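hey so u asked for the seq, here:
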Amino acid sequence: MKFGRRSFLLHSGAYSTAAIGLTPRPLTAKVGKANLTTVSDGYLALPGDFVFDPMPQQQLAPVLSEFGISRERLTPECNLALYQHEDNTVLFDTGSGPDFMPTAGTVLDSLDAAGLTPEEITHVVFTHAHPDHIWGLLDDFDDPLFSNATYLMGRAEWDYWWNPETVHTIGEARAAFAVGARRRMEVIEESVELFNDGQEILPGVLAVSTPGHTPGHMSFEIRNGSESAMVLGDAIGNHHVAFRRPDWVSGSDQDGDMAAVTRTRLFDRLLSEQTQIVGFHLPQGGMGRVERDVEGYVFVPGAP
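ran it, structure tokens below
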């Protein structure tokens, strides 16, 4: 089943009323002497097949039942990570802006509630260039919304979306994603800073390659003193099937097989290191930790 922007908007209109009340509460945690906060950009409203279509349906049903998840529709939160340390106020991703879904694009209200203006963001770091992560880059005049920020993106991710062939090879359902990403990237072309896997892009912020959801998807390990956290982006895209069966291919990933390998390795790392996590689409503000039980992995929400 194929889903382009038109299908997304149709589903978001159909389900927006049902999802009222899902706005998550912001969470703030200490990472050493720094603050790590989640700020909401609203939520998405998606057809279930967008994620579940390639999965083994008989085995899927009990997982969805366990978590009370509808097979027909999903309303995942959108939680941006905000890292404040000394003179740096770092926002990971920019959210959807006004043009993707009517249920998303609320990051400015969330920043205002946190006592911040867009001009106070010093750095914007992209996990990847899907619409709900980069379409909020521009203001109403097509200028960068976070006007004083330095923009940073992984080199592999930038090269993928910048390539003029991507719009022709990504598939009809995601062609609008490529057009939208390229339009926004053109605005910051002369000023963006590109980085590679393993690079410390800011003091205490290390780039971690987590490909599959997109070809150059990046997560970020934050270390301050003896404490750490991991900003996951969409490397682990939900709290139910992705945790219970990280080896299953998800329809939301551009390279499903690679994303499954990435998830499995990432879970092993997060569990062994007991690292605090922020997941863009994880519930209750997106912040928590990974634990293991007899059924697999489980997301435990909340700031420590």
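Confidence is low (pLDDT under 50) at residues 1-23. Residues 238 and 282 are 5 Å apart (CA to CA).
lmk if thats what u needed
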